[in-house]
Write a structure and sequence with these properties.
By secondary structure, the protein is an alpha/beta fold. It has one domain (5-458): Alpha-Beta Complex (Amidase signature (AS) enzymes), CATH 3.90.1300. The protein is built from 15 helices and 11 strands. The chain has helices at 10-19, 24-42, 50-65, 108-115, 156-163, 180-185, 220-230, 266-269, 275-290, 304-322, 336-347, 350-370, 389-395, 410-415, 444-458; strands at 45-48, 77-81, 119-124, 169-174, 189-192, 212-217, 261-264, 294-297, 376-379, 419-426, 432-439. β2, α4 (108-115) and β3 (119-124) form a beta-alpha-beta unit.
């Protein structure tokens, strides 16, 4: 086997598996050995499902030899964030209070991955309750590009595992930016789908009306493959959408962006960003134009600022609902950051929460109106390149959930519009650069097409030195 097998794309690896050039058992053994060797440096997994993964792989090999139909993810090891229920295996959600919680069923997205032939190789580490900080007893995942730099939250384990070649893809969740921050920090493609495009059944909530589940991968085609598997209506989730799921992988073809109108609000895009981010945005805008896209100046609805400033209110109220079986009865088992959020959630007047819901509804309508004149929005993903971990530990969350770095993420969790985070290369000091495209609701197809055109133009992201 090639020594760089672990850095192949999921799509290329799946084609090798289906051709018989690789067996699922060989690949799973290879990846388990790599995890064993690298995981002590990175702490990306909450749990490695070694025995189950080997059993799944062996079963897939038997099915292939018997000539049975092969799924779109046949034999590929993938990871899932440890707030997604896995039957018979603990789902701790980054907490101590749920450390021994063993679900009796699989999350819908986990079932869909398995049905598509994926080997679930492990469950990735996350911040406590998927909020802003890890429980004090848990070792946080480390960014493989620079272990002293922020790996993003809360899906940091998912981002680190994929970037370091310890999984071919992973599922993350996004409530205020938690697919996008680790994707941006770890040089990955991350898709936050339209709210309701992917079922949340069997996912422990941070804030139900803001939570999204999506793929984190090393290429746009890989993300399209995963999304095509996990998307679609689920009768177990009343918020899931009934719309047909397009053939997303078929959109990952070499095309230009002729006909695409891409909106940019430069005042918004420069809101509190470092100069390095500004330069990335200028460069990406030129690249999208060179690919045939038309850049159009737009103005984002001004209510985004209140949603950014008060995201913590909505999150806190809904988080308190999610934890009512544990908090405050077992408050002593919680870390300080999540405890502060829960206390806030228990104290917020219902009228304040409902007022923000009205702001959300207006913002969503105004954003839909903006999209009547453009196909996509171009924005930063983060206000800076990955900062030192110690600095982010200070910035990541205050007791009211305020954080300036959610400027480019939280508004689209509120509105439910889909986004794709794309790597834009490495900075002079070797840190991942990134940007974000925002699409119309249920506009994942346009995001995938535009993302693939950009990716095909600039080439693959350099892998970290792991």
């Amino acid at each position: 086997m090639s020594e760089v097998l672990h850095y192949q794309t999921l799509s290329a690896t799946c084609r090798q598996l289906k051709s018989g050039a690789l067996s699922a058992s060989e690949l799973t053994d290879y990846m388990l050995k790599r995890i064993s060797a690298c995981e002590p440096q990175l702490s990306s997994y909450a749990m490695v499902l070694e025995e189950q993964a080997r059993q799944q792989a062996a079963q897939l090999d038997r099915a292939q030899k018997a000539g049975e139909p092969l799924g779109p993810l046949h034999g590929v090891p993938v990871a899932v964030k440890d707030l997604l229920y896995t039957r018979g295996h603990a789902t701790a959600s980054g907490t101590r209070v749920m450390a021994n919680f063993i679900p009796e069923f699989d999350a819908t997205v986990v079932l869909r991955l398995r049905d598509a032939g994926a080997v679930i190789i492990g469950k990735t580490q996350l911040t406590e309750g998927a909020f802003g900080a890890h429980h004090p007893d848990i070792v946080a995942p480390r960014n493989p590009y620079d272990v002293n730099r922020w790996p993003g939250v809360s899906s940091s384990g998912s981002g680190v595992s994929v970037a370091a070649g310890l999984a071919f893809a992973a599922l993350g969740t996004d409530t205020g930016g938690s697919i996008r921050f680790p994707s941006a920090s770890c040089g990955l493609v991350g898709i936050k789908p339209t709210y309701g495009r992917v079922s949340r059944h069997g996912a422990f909530a941070l804030a139900e009306s803001l939570d999204h589940i999506g793929p984190m991968c090393r290429s746009v085609e890989d993300a399209a493959r995963i999304l095509s598997v996990i998307a679609g209506q689920d009768p177990q989730d009343p918020t899931s959408l009934p719309d047909d799921v397009p053939n997303y992988p078929a959109l990952a073809l070499p095309r230009d962006l002729t006909g695409f109108v891409i909106g940019v609000d430069w005042d918004y895009a420069n809101d509190g960003v470092d100069e390095e981010v500004h330069q990335v945005m200028q460069r990406v805008a030129r690249q999208l134009q060179d690919l045939g896209g038309k850049i159009k100046m737009v103005t984002l609805p001004g209510s985004y600022r209140r949603l950014v400033d008060e995201w913590g209110i909505t999150c806190a109220v809904e988080c308190a609902r999610a934890h009512r079986a544990y908090y405050p009865a077992r408050a002593d088992q919680y870390g300080p950051v999540l405890s502060q959020l829960l206390e806030l959630g228990l104290s917020v007047p219902q009228g304040h929460y409902e007022e923000l819901e009205a702001v959300r509804a207006n913002f969503r309508t105004e954003l839909d109106d903006l999209f009547s004149g453009v196909d996509l929005l171009l924005t930063p993903c983060m206000t800076s390149l990955p900062l030192p971990v110690a600095q982010m530990d200070e910035n990541v969350a205050t007791e009211d959930g305020r954080a300036s770095f959610i400027t480019f993420t939280a508004p689209y969790d509120y509105s439910g519009h889909p986004t794709i985070t794309l790597p834009a290369g490495l900075s002079a000091n070797g840190l991942p650069e990134s940007f974000q495209l925002v699409g119309k609701r249920l506009g994942e197809a346009a995001l995938i097409r535009a993302g693939f055109a950009y990716e095909h133009n600039i080439g693959p992201m350099p892998h970290p030195p792991v």
